[in-house]
Amino acid sequence: MFRVALLLGVLVAVAFAGPTPDRRIVGGIPTVAGEAPWMVSLRNSLNFHLCGGTLLSNRHVLSTGNCLMGRIATATMAVAGTRFLNAVAVPYWGIQIIVHPSYNVNTLENDIALFQTAIPFILTQSTQPLALSADIIGTAVRAQIYGWGASVAGGSNSNALNFLNVNTLSNEDCASFLGAEGWRIGSSSLCTLTREGQGICDGDEGGALVLNNYAIGVASWGIPCATGRPDVFVRISSVRSWILNFI
User: Fold this and answer.
1) Residues near 70 by Cβ (< 8 Å), separated by ≥ 6?
2) DSSP state of 123
């Protein structure tokens, strides 16, 4: 009962917050220069943004298996160091894609993959790796999500990188809120929720969920888009040891 009351309190507080402009990430706020130097845009050979990524080292980008599985690494590029998709930037072409061996294409459990570049990223003030949190994240933790995703399902990507403040849920509450899709929530899932009209959308997959300058999650899926249902991330603490084997 206390958990339900706490959850309702969080949602009521969010619902009565001041209005937020309807930007992309749905309901998001544009970042400022230097705010998220770990964010990477993963693109196809035509320079079209596919999904987000998190720079973990000068050769490795963390993203989703759903985005990268089946792609040819050498025909995929990573762009870092800019908040804008249309900015002129150096492309870092891939040499290898490594998908988590327990990735489940139906539930999207362990939905992560590593993109390794052929040459190292040049690290600057605007291009920096993000550390991986080892903490097991609980309920009602306030974190930030980042991405270039659309403002509506099926819409075009945002040119500017946006962020959004969100609150974490327990997996039990997440599954309940998701209804018919709740069966897909598993041990590697980390859910967030804010008010209707705010959340991740197409193109935000692979983006970082960040707490105190540590990655705690990777954007995986949601019910499109910003419908007042939870967004689902891969919980970093559940896959961190596997990632560290490669970077």
Assistant:
1) none
2) -
Helices (H), 27-136: 65-68
**3 state DSSP class of 217:** strand
- Exposure string for 34-73, b = 16+ CB within 10 A, e = fewer: eebbbbbbbbeeeeebbbbbbbbbbbbbbbbbbbbeebeb
- Rounded to whole angstroms, the Cα distance separating 169 from 140 reads 6
Return phi, psi of residue 83, to 5°: -90, -10
Per-residue pLDDT, 24: 52
- Residues 147 and 25 sit within 8 Å (Cβ to Cβ): yes
Which H helix or E strand runs over 167? strand 162-169
Which residues, other chains included, contact 7 with Cβ-Cβ below 8 Å and sequence gap of 6+? 139, 140, 169, 173
Overall pTM > 0.85: yes
Q: Give the CA diameter of the chain.
A: 53
Partnered with residue 120 across adjacent β-strands are none
**φ, ψ for residue 166, nearest 5 deg:** -140, 165
Alpha-carbon distance 196 to 199, whole Å? Answer: 8
Across the chain, which has 247 residues, the per-10-residue mean pLDDT values are: 40 34 69 94 96 97 97 98 94 98 96 98 96 96 95 89 96 96 96 93 95 97 93 97 96
